[in-house]
Structure formats: structure tokens, C-alpha cells
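testing teh design pipeline on a random one, pls ignore if ur not involved
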């Protein structure tokens, strides 16, 4: 990518427009955005990791000069109002929330690459999935009712926790129909958690 595009306000607006589009949009029109332009990266951020609501809706889109697209989305505390009464939610990453966020990320990636490379000069593409700041969270489905007690899991020894050892190749068809890749990613997440939880026993 041409890094001089990053400082172009029309280019920035196009990225934001793509992030707002679709049934599974990354950005919400009701929330403010911050734009950071660097020599090799454009970053657009929605939400504030420093406050509860802003952190829950945190979404970051990074475009790099080398062509890398990075989408960062919060995957914790998304179950709704009951999470304020559920002490267990602070130690949980719900696979259903991860699934929904992966759908959002894949949908945006498909829109971005169709916009940026409509002639498909770059194919296959490479992708990976990473969990940041796992700490003492475990991957488990949230109970139907809030809990007021829980056991504290062991601390994850990896931060970030890479899901795949090496990036996976995908074609544009996978971007438009990502269900298989999303399921594979969730299966790999389960495996990663089992690996480090088994070692900590």
C-alpha cells in the first residue's frame, strides 16, 4: 500500500465507511472514532479501553504499508446487562461472543479486500487469529443465569495467545463464506486453552 494514502482524508473516510457497512459492521455510527496516521500505519479506533462501556465496544482497524490488515475487537463482557451481576464473566471468554466477533472481522476483511484489490491481484491471502490479555480467563460458554461465585483459573502463560503457529492461506471465496474458517479457529482456540490449562495442573 502507498503510505501517503494514510494521510488522505478521503481514504480514511472510505475505510470508515467500509467498517460501518454490512449487517455485521465493526463500527457504530453512534460512537466517536480516533484516527492515528503514522509513516507505515493508519489506525482508526472506536471506544476507549480505559472505561467499561468504551472498552466493551472497543474496535480497532489497522492498515499497514506492507498490506497487512489488522482488526482488533473486544470479546469479553458482551452478554448484556446481567454481566454486571455475574462475577464469573471477568474470568470467561464466551466462544459465542468470539464467533460473533469473528463474523464481524471476516465481513469487514471481505469488504476491504474487494474495495482495495477488486482485480484480485493478491490471492491467496494469509490470516491468523490472536487473543491478547487472556490473563486468568478461560474459554467457556456463559451460564444462562449470572453466578455470584467462581473458581479463578490459572494465568495464561502466553500473551498474546496465537491460535495458529503459522498464518493460514485463504482465497476470496473463504472471505465471503467464512463459516468453515470460523469453526476451525474456534476449535483451535479450544485446543490452545486445553494445552496450557493441562500444563498448569
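output:
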Amino acid at each position: 500500500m502507498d503510505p501517503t494514502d494514510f494521510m488522505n482524508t478521503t481514504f480514511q473516510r472510505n475505510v470508515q465507511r467500509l467498517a460501518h457497512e454490512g449487517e455485521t459492521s465493526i463500527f457504530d455510527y453512534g460512537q466517536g472514532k480516533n484516527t492515528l496516521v503514522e509513516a507505515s500505519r493508519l489506525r482508526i479506533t472506536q471506544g476507549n479501553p480505559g472505561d467499561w462501556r468504551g472498552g466493551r465496544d472497543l474496535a480497532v482497524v489497522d492498515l499497514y504499508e506492507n498490506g497487512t490488515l489488522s482488526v482488533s475487537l473486544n470479546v469479553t463482557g458482551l452478554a448484556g446487562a446481567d454481566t454486571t451481576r455475574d462475577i464469573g464473566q471477568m474470568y470467561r471468554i464466551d466462544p459465542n461472543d468470539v464467533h460473533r466477533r469473528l463474523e464481524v472481522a471476516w465481513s469487514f476483511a471481505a469488504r476491504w479486500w474487494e474495495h482495495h484489490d477488486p482485480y484480485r491481484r493478491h490471492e491467496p491471502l494469509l490470516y491468523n487469529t490472536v487473543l491478547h490479555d487472556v490473563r486468568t480467563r478461560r474459554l467457556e460458554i456463559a451460564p444462562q443465569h449470572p453466578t455470584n461465585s467462581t473458581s479463578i483459573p490459572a494465568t495464561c502463560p502466553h500473551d498474546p495467545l496465537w491460535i495458529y503457529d503459522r498464518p493460514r492461506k485463504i482465497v476470496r471465496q473463504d472471505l465471503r463464506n467464512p463459516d468453515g474458517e470460523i469453526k476451525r479457529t474456534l476449535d483451535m482456540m479450544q485446543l490452545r486453552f486445553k494445552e496450557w490449562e493441562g500444563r498448569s495442573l
